[in-house]
Specification:
Chain lengths: 558, 97
């Protein structure tokens, strides 16, 4: 009987063992085994989307993709380690010791050696037929114009998962549109790894990134960058910027700042340089702001271009004495002359005529204190004082552009309203977005609000022409052209007070006055050859304007 | 018995024929799969070549390259440019009588 029980127990044990094992396979390890089986039967590949290109208005690429590869090692297939380290190290310019440390890690079958390696180096490696090395497509960004427009383009780095991601400028702002959508392919494969035609397959096509067509004109951008570089060197400035806008549409024709960086080698530069100072840095506009304040006062009907102001001496505001920049006073002068002489005391007169409420409202209407909504990632606007925080002296100094901070883009946009008949425009970098399937989305010009009446804009334009023809910078003006403009020299606030020797020299203007093709702002921070805008920023402005006239085929009017 | 044999022979032949056809067809499909893989690789290669060509075109037409070539060929920036208004032209350029 015990024999029967023994056999029964043995069979029962085996039965339980089999059931247990089946339970383990079919329930506990089911997911893992399914995945393993799928990996043996199916070939799964991700189909990366190509990042979109960024083109200028004249159709040239500022950023595009370049063939590049991920170079990886397969340690099990390497036949001669020392030769491998030496050859691969030499071509990829990586120390042999570094490659040795990577490749000799235990239990590794696939090791990435270098990312985004140029095609010529990969071809060199391929020609040597080294065993234990592989390549995978990994396109990288290519900048045909090198560092041109770096600050507005931004660059492509990697996110936390190692995927490409745009940072700063257009790459950051339009990252979603540019990166597209990665596709995937799952296909049944045979024992040799070749796809089975009648097998199961699922293919999701990648959606390549869109192409951005900018308002930027390549030639105007080049002119601005070359002239700015020369200007910074000539006038010994620490920094400088040039922004050129089409006043009728708000399209940015050029945007240059220096010092800049090379987006292809962004890691080698100071992070501070990544920000675009034209939209992310603030400065006090100084006298360039005077034309706008006069426009507001004329528009409100409190003064006219020929209103007489008696400039007899410094003006007392609260406990402060406000004087002219050169401490010279001209007696009875018109508002046009106030602009020509860049009279601070004359501006205090205009501001008082306008009144506190209207002046503060004007500052808000002109867009100071709020972002311009330009399509660049790094835009930041300085805040405007609260309505109750304006003291008499603050209003007085703000009338001649001190004690108020703006970005260069805010300033050029505001001046654009004088050039285009009074309209505050929304600035734009991108004109059209072209998707990979050819669908084109136009980004239309947007009028924010009418700042001044057209008649006011016309009057102030003439006052600005007069300021150029008779002002401190008349010596630099190109002959025969009607250019409206205003110089500015603002002191830089340092630890609660103004430094007499440190200034931001600037010039803002537009041309040709009768049909403005561009409005431009030039700023130079701490020029050392002269602190005055009329001797630094103004000649730089006129040099750029001359080149643009030539490029656009605009002849002299007289 | 003869009838059964008579029926069996063509059935077997048909079966063998169909089996052979199936094997040949399957083998062809496997071949087609390899061909697809080759075509995919060729498409990939063409795309890479297009990308490389685009890069070369962009590089050759960049302002930096053009500027360098122009300088090498002896071109210089005009030191002074004089423009004339249409009203003040001294001769009737491009005007027909």
């Amino acid at each position: 009987m015990w024999r029967i029980w023994s056999v029964f127990s043995l069979f029962s044990f085996c039965f339980i063992l089999i059931v247990g094992r089946l339970f383990y396979w079919q329930v506990i390890s089911s997911t893992r085994l399914k995945a393993e089986a799928a990996s043996q039967h199916f070939l799964e590949m991700s189909l990366p989307a190509e990042r979109g290109t960024i083109k200028t208005a004249d159709g040239y690429s500022l950023v595009m993709n370049k063939a590049a590869y991920l170079v990886y090692a397969e340690p099990k297939n390497i036949t001669n380690l020392p030769v491998y380290f030496k050859t691969v190290g030499q071509i990829l310019e990586i120390p042999e010791a570094t490659i040795s440390a990577m490749v000799t890690q235990p239990n590794r079958v696939w090791i990435p050696i270098a990312h985004k390696v140029d095609n010529d180096k990969v071809q060199q490696l391929k020609s040597l037929a080294i065993s234990g090395i592989g390549f995978e497509k990994e396109p990288k960004r290519y900048y045909p114009e090198a560092s041109m427009a770096a600050n507005l383009l931004g660059f492509v780095g990697q996110d936390q998962n190692g995927n490409d991601k745009g940072y700063f400028g257009l790459e950051g702002y339009y990252n979603r549109e540019l990166q597209g959508k990665t596709g995937s392919m799952t296909i049944e494969k045979d024992v040799s790894g070749a796809p089975i035609l009648i097998g199961e397959s699922l293919r999701v096509e990648p959606a390549n990134g869109s192409t951005l067509h900018l308002w930027i004109d390549r030639t105007i951008q080049n002119i601005a960058e070359l002239r700015l570089k020369q200007g910074i060197e000539k006038y010994g400035a620490k920094e400088g910027s040039v922004v050129i806008m089409d006043p009728k549409t708000g399209g940015i024709l050029a945007m240059a700042s220096g010092p800049s960086y090379d987006p292809a080698k962004y890691g080698e530069y100071d992070r501070e340089l990544y920000k675009n100072p034209i939209v992310a840095s603030t400065y006090e506009p100084g006298s360039t702001f005077k034309a706008l304040v006069l426009a507001a006062a004329i528009d409100a009907g409190v003064i006219k271009a020929d209103t007489i102001f008696d400039e007899t001496g410094p003006v007392q505001v609260s406990d402060y004495s406000i004087r002219t920049w050169n401490n010279e006073y001209h007696g009875p002068i018109t508002m046009t002359k106030v602009l020509e002489y860049s009279s601070n005391v004359g501006m205090v007169f205009a501001e008082k005529k306008l009144g506190e409420e209207k002046f503060v409202q004007f500052l808000k209407n002109v867009g100071f204190g709020t972002n311009t909504n330009v399509d660049l990632e790094d835009e930041a606007s300085p805040e405007l004082r609260g309505d109750r925080d304006w003291k008499e002296i603050d209003l007085a100094t703000a009338s001649f552009g001190q004690g108020i901070a703006v970005t260069p883009l805010q300033m050029v946009r505001a001046t654009g309203a004088i050039a285009n008949g009074g309209w505050l425009m929304e600035p734009h970098m991108v004109k059209t977005i072209e998707s990979a399937d050819g669908k084109i989305t136009d980004i239309k010009a947007k009028k924010i609000r009418q700042l001044f009446k057209a008649s006011t804009a016309e009057v102030v334009s003439e006052m600005m022409v007069s300021a150029v023809d008779n002002g401190e910078a008349k010596w630099a003006k190109p002959k025969g052209y009607r250019i409206a403009g205003k110089t500015g020299t603002a002191q830089i606030p340092v630890a609660g007070h103004y430094d007499d020797k440190k200034t931001i020299a600037s010039f803002v203007g537009f041309a040709p006055v009768d049909d403005p093709k561009f409005v431009m702002l030039v700023t130079l921070r701490e020029p050392s050859s002269s602190q005055w805008g009329s001797e630094t920023a103004a000649p730089l402005f006129f040099n750029i304007a001359k080149d643009i006239f030539l490029y656009l085929g605009i002849p002299a009017q007289s | 018995m003869k009838t059964i044999t008579k029926a069996l022979i063509p059935t077997t032949l048909l079966f063998v024929l169909l089996l052979t056809a199936q094997i040949v067809y399957s083998c062809r499909l496997v071949g087609d799969g390899k061909e697809i893989k080759t075509i995919d690789m060729q498409i990939d290669q063409v795309r890479q070549n297009v990308l490389i060509s685009e890069e070369k075109v962009a590089s050759a037409s960049s302002l930096t390259t053009i500027s360098e070539k122009a300088t090498a060929m002896g071109f210089e920036s005009a030191p002074k440019v004089v423009t004339m208004n249409a009203d003040s032209l001294v001769v009737a350029f491009g005007q027909s009588r």
